[in-house]
Predict the 3D structure of the following.
Amino acid sequence: MSAISSLSRAEGMIVIASIHQPSLETLAQFTNVMFLAEGKVCYLGRVDQLEGFFEKWGRPVGRFVSFLQPSIVSNHLTRYV
């Protein structure tokens, strides 16, 4: 992902990627993300605002925890969509 990220920034390109449970290091290479749960958008926005978003719903994310753990997304966020 880092090569794609570097190329897209250098060339001014938009990259659309579908990644299942990326590491925090991979996720940090994106500017904006869209998370889907049960066919609905549960987050659309900047990566640097994700931590605050999850904290708002009582789900702080530690450094070694995937943002997209199924229990976090399915059980808690989809009811607010």
In short: The helical segments are 2-11, 24-27, 50-56, 70-77. The radius of gyration is 13 Å. The chain has a mean pLDDT of 76. The chain has one domain: 2-80.
